[in-house]
Specification:
heterodimer, A: alpha/beta, Rossmann fold, 5-stranded parallel beta sheet, B: globular
Chain lengths: 311, 189
């Protein structure tokens, strides 16, 4: 990882932290270095440090408790954030984990961009202000993505493919459901790569357990046990699950009619394609990002005219 | 630019069974600067009943148990709520938390406090505008049947939802237009 700020400009200095890094914190730090390298200086050989040589600019040191205790005569304009693993009584400037410490670094950098944005706004340089603000937002977008990929069980979007999600039905074997499946397929063909229908929970389960490339939306008829829907949540490619159909028991979680099902699908697809667009954008896949945002837009129009008509 | 303070609640929504509340705080964030969350579409968010005071908000919620509450709340207020939990609040249906910083976001993602079943999502406040638009569309769809008898209010809700959807559409348009900017930035680095 190369991250070199010039000493006259730098604001955030990391000392002796390399060996403590986790996968999460090092990925976050890499991102910060690629998006905000001018603010960061990484030092792993403390013998090279001579604070008296440093400029009068405000400087924040991120380091270990060991190194912190060895410093004598810290200049007054220096702040220090300390990794202190054994300490349960965490004070404001001591952090129990490296993930927390590096997240604080990210917040400090974002705050820096926002301060710059404010300064530009004050002197009416609105374009520059917007650039700074957007850079702050870009950092947070990327960090949320890293968090989702590394610290949750949700599968990340695969950068190499752009297959639309599939819609999977698990339908009742006692009723005729063709009307519903045809209607949904006709209205949503642009937004799903395929539509699959299962009549039996075992085949259905085998399929979703095995499929691991495309994102899945599931519609499960209400005469199947609720546990089938709950059990499907564990598969990371399953993004949305709907329980649908008439039901003897009053249950808010069951969608009772086709109109509401269509509405819910449209609404969730807007959010889905919006997020997808954002992720492609964060990964600099501009063309794909544009396609996703365009789909979200056409879904917005469908939502407005179909579910909130003017008359 | 608009902020939470610019939201003007349309009291017609207080007659609906479903209620949409936002509990914010006037505070300094952990970095020490007062933060103002920008909400460019604040003027469209007339469905939101904004509170700044925890007690007032709790009293409002417990004043009518037939009301079903969606609560959007700052992380600091959520933590205070957890410490001072003294109300009967079974009528809170869904909770969404917003945070100013990534550290707070991570903390709330793994938070172990009250209402774990009810917390639907955690947001960073730079995306709050987008999420309130999304939640607002869904909320209005839910309350419209309550106003079937009153055509004026019913129509007004419909118009309000259409405006929110248009704002969403424009938001995606802005994203598309900013794609060029992103390319420029990448090349400079």
């Amino acid at each position: 990882m190369i991250c070199l700020a010039s000493i006259s400009n730098d604001l955030f200095v990391l000392v002796n932290l390399s060996e403590h890094m986790t996968e999460f914190s090092s990925t976050v730090l890499e991102t910060l270095c690629s998006l905000a390298s001018k603010f960061i200086l990484i030092i792993n050989d403390e013998s090279t440090i001579d604070f008296s040589q440093w400029s009068k600019k405000s400087t924040t040191i991120f380091t270990t408790a060991q190194f912190a205790s060895s410093i004598e005569n810290l200049p007054k304009h220096f702040k220090m954030f300390i990794l202190d693993k054994g300490n349960n009584n965490i004070e404001q400037q001591r952090f129990a984990t490296i993930d927390d410490l590096i997240s604080r670094l990210a917040d400090e950098i974002v705050q820096q961009y926002r301060l710059e944005a404010n300064e530009y706004t004050k002197v009416d340089e609105l374009i520059k202000a917007k650039e700074q603000e957007e850079q702050a937002n870009r950092i947070y977008r990327k960090l949320k993505q890293i968090h989702e990929q590394l610290l949750t069980n949700k599968s990340p979007i695969k950068a190499s493919d752009s297959i639309s999600p599939i819609l999977i039905w698990l339908i009742s074997n006692t009723e005729n459901n063709e009307d519903d499946t045809n209607y949904i397929e006709k209205n949503f063909e642009k937004y799903f790569s395929s539509f699959l229908i299962f009549f039996h929970e075992y085949n259905f389960h085998d399929y979703i357990a095995q499929e691991n490339i495309t994102d899945m939306f599931l519609i499960i008829y209400s005469d199947y046990r609720e546990s089938i829907a709950q059990g499907s949540h564990q598969f990371s490619n399953v993004k949305y699950i709907y329980r649908y159909g008439e039901s003897k028991i009053q249950d808010d979680k069951i969608i009772a009619n086709r109109d509401n099902l269509c509405y819910q699908l449209t609404y969730d697809l807007i959010d889905y394609y919006g997020k997808l667009g954002e992720q492609y954008r964060t990964n600099n896949q501009t063309k794909k990002a544009r396609d996703m945002f365009l789909k979200a837009q056409s879904l917005c129009q469908f939502l407005s005219t179909t579910f909130f008509p003017s008359k | 630019m608009g902020s939470i303070d610019d939201i003007q609640f349309d009291t017609n929504y207080s007659f609906a069974t479903f209620q949409f509340l936002l509990l914010n705080d006037q505070r300094l964030n952990q970095i020490g600067l007062s933060s103002v969350i920008t909400l460019p579409h604040a003027l469209l968010m007339t469905f939101i009943n904004v509170f700044h005071d925890l007690i007032q908000c709790q009293e409002y919620i417990s004043s009518d148990y037939r009301k079903i509450i969606t609560l959007v709340i700052s992380d600091k207020k959520m933590i205070r709520w957890d410490n001072e939990i003294n109300v009967i609040d079974n009528n809170i249906d869904k909770i969404y938390i917003f945070c100013d910083t990534f550290s707070d976001y991570l903390a709330m993602k793994k938070w172990d406090g009250c209402y774990r079943e009810k917390i639907q999502d955690v947001y960073l406040s730079d995306t709050l505008d987008y999420h309130l638009i999304m939640l607002g569309i869904d909320y209005i769809r839910k309350v419209m049947p309550d106003f079937r008898e009153d055509r004026t209010i019913y129509r007004q809700c419909g118009t309000n939802a259409q405006n929110l959807i248009r704002a969403l559409d424009n938001y995606f348009q802005d994203q598309i237009e900013s794609l060029h900017d992103d390319l420029g930035v990448e090349e400079n680095n």
